[in-house]
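Lecture notes, unit on protein representations.

Consider one protein chain, 382 amino acids long.
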Amino acid sequence: MDTCDVLVVGGGPAGSTCAGKLRQAGLDVLLLDKATFPRDKPCAGWITPAVLATLAIDPEEYRRGRVLQEITTFRTGLINGSEVVTRYGTTVSFGIRRYEFDHYLLQLCAVRQSMGEPVSALARHDGGWIVNGRIRARLVVGAGGHFCPVARLLGAQIGREEVIAAQAAEIAMDPDQEHLCRTPADTPALFFCRDMKGYGWLFRKGSFLNVGLGRMDRKHLGRHMRDFCVFLEQRGDLPAGLAGRFRGHPYLLYGGQGGRTCVSDGALLVGDAAGLAQPQSGEGILPAIESALLAADTILAADGDYRRANLEPYAARLVTRFGGESMGIPSSPISSGLLRFLGARLLASGWFARHVVLDRWFLHTPILYSSPQSGRAGQADR
C-alpha cells in the first residue's frame, strides 16, 4: 500500500499548485492523474499577468522553449457584426499553450506522481481514504476538473448542472498558412453571439491558431461553432482549410445555481472541480491557482486533523475572495430581441468595449470613470 498525507487528484494548474505548496511545507504529497503529461487541453490558453505574479514565474525564463505571446490589443464585437479595436500600448495579458503550461507547473511542483492512472475506487477508511485499492491517504484534494471523481463523491450532480459548454481547437499552421494568416499575434479577437449567451475567440500564438466558442445554452453548440468559423473565414481571419478537430469541455461559473460543495471530511475541491470559473469571461486558470493556494493554507492550518470543521475555513475563504453570489448575466424576462439590440449598441461603443468588456470582464481591472460634475476621475465599485 502506497501511503501519503495528501492525495491530489488532477495535475492541472490547481492540482500542481496545491501539491507544490504542501510539499514545500513538508507534507508527503502524491499527485494522480488519468492522463500522461504533456497533454492537450481544450482551452483558449490566455492568462493575465496576475497568474505569473501569483506563481512567481519569471516571464523570460518561462518563454525559453515555450509560447508566451504578449497581448497588447483586442478586437471585440458581434458575430456577423462590426468590431471595435482597443489598443493598450502595453502588455496586458499573455497567450500560452496549455500543453506546455500545465506540464511546466507539474514539473515545478516536484511531488511524487502517478500519471496515466484514473480513479477507479475511492472509499473512506479509518479516518482517511483508500484509492484504487493501493493508495492510503489522510486527505484527498479534488483537482480533476469538471468531471472530477472527488466532486462526484461530494455530491456534484454531474450531467445535471447548468454548465457553460465550449468547443476549442489549437491548430498548428504550416509556414505557408502562417504567412497567409491575417490575425496579428498580439491581438486576440472576441466576438459575442447575438443572443449574448456566449462568445467565440480567435487567438494566434506564433505558429498556432486557437479557435473556440462557449455558450450558456448548450443546444446546437456545434452549429454555433460552425457558423462562427464561417464568419471568420469570410472575413479572411481564418485561412480556408484550417479545420481543426474541435473538442468540447464543460465548466461551471462561480456563483451559479446549485454551486458545488467544496468541503467534506477529509476532502477539498479546487479549480474547475469546485466550479470557480469567472462569471463573465469563463476564465478558470487564475481562480484555479488562487483556490489551490487557499486550500493549501487551510490544510496546513488543520495540522493533520482533516475533519470537516477544520476544513470549513476554506469555503469561507472562497467567498471572501470570489464573492458570495453570481456576477454573471442573470436570467431575466428581457425579450431576446431587446437583449440583441442592447448588446449590439453596447458592443459598438469603444468605451464599453474597453472599460467593461475588456477591463472588467476579461482583465479584471477596476473601471475608471469621469464625474460629469467634477471632471475628476474616480474608481467604480467592483
